[in-house]
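Lab notebook, bench 4. Still working through the backlog of constructs that have no structural model yet. Next entry is a single chain of 289 residues. Request: give me the structure tokens for it.
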Amino acid sequence: MMKYIIIPAIVFIGIVSTGLSLASYRETFEKEFMLSPWSIAQGEVSACIQCHTSDSMEPRIHQHVQEWRGSWHAKNNVSCHDCHGGAPEDASMSMMHQRGFKGAPKDIEIPEFCGTCHIAIQDNYIKSGHGKTFIATGEGPSCVTCHGSHNIQQASMDIINEQLCSQCHTYDRAKEMKQALFLVENKLNTIAKNLKRLKLFGIGTDRQEKAFFRNHAEFRALFHSIDVDAVRAKSSDYTQRLEIIETEINESFKQLTYRRNYSAYLFLIFIGLSIVVFLLSKSYDQKNT
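Model written out:
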């Protein structure tokens, strides 16, 4: 008799305690298995990658592919043809200009080349001291000077460093910009980490992610103006916007804590009920022996 009571109770407890995280497992499965491996497989069979990794190519060309594979572009499914054009699915057409092939840009074309996707950043860069100098003289920092060409990583304040910036001017100027960015950058990093944590627990974050992405993109674009005063003036505005997102995230963590506590409460109730049923059953058996 006892096993018919306890086993269903245990099964029910398992359903209650794990049900809340099923969405998380499903999302992780879709992201890590359904998306990532297949996206890599698609890249591996592209004509661009097959050709550039073949034995007929010199090691320098192989390196371009290896750098791209570890880049922020690759992690976000931005492949060769997204920047260079062409037909990656057809080797015979892969480098045809009729299929939009652009190849590698000349140095002076780099801002426009990258600006195809990074429109707001390009606009601010062109208006900046960096952009004006580069466009007027063909010298000075362009996109690849700071970000590289194929091994492009997620932007962070680490890119503002003495080794890189002092190639063109004293680091003091760059240090001022880094200090002006510090508060907002810290908030952006904290929010990004907390959004990832919530998603792993199966909490919906679509609205917060959209708001975060919008503010993140705007602030990144503003930085490329290289205008310390403008960054300082708008930092408080971005800080207020990000604090609204932080408040919503904190509320989601509170709800998560409540759900965990509620699951634990149900678990204890069923354990208690199972013990009571067991004792009653034992007492009943003793009376009938």
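Notes after review: Residues 1-5, 15-44 have pLDDT under 50 and may be disordered. Residues 1-35+154-289 form one domain. Flag for follow-up if needed.
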